[in-house]
Amino acid sequence: MATQKLKYTTPGMPEADAQRVVEILQDRLNATTDLHLTLKHVHWNVVGPHFISVHEMIDPQVDAVRGFSDDLAERIATLGGSPIGTPGKLVEARNWDEYSIGRDTTQAHLGALDLVYQGVISSYREQIKELDDLDLVTQDMFIAQTDQLELFHWFIRAHLEDKGGALSTAGAHTEVEAAQQAG
Where is the Ferritin/DPS domain positioned along the sequence (predicted)? Predict the structure, then answer.
């Protein structure tokens, strides 16, 4: 995705720093937009004996992550950028694969979501480190969002653990592998 030229930025922030922060924010906007749509897809496609508990567990996650997208887009605008939220641009810019699980059991979807959350949280944590030298305000937003994502990830993983704490998805490298292992 081409870097956009900022017309202005927030007082006290060098333009080059603001430019990089906008790029980082756009990456997270893409990730959270994709995540809330993926979570809604899971919400619609889970089946099996634990359907209702997983179906109802996912909706608050959808709402929270959708709110993250809005906060990220508004921060981009605050820094003088223009948030990009169109599906085509999101797909063009993302560096992860499309969620590949359709109608399946709750365990299969939770296994796949374990890997999805691992990817999203890991990239947030990498960008939190970079923001330490660029913009503490945006870093604070990322820390708060990561806190919530890690909580949601724990909710998912609680369904995948045995009584000894071992995850059924351990060692899986793809959503399909994780779904099969969890199922």
Answer: 23-162
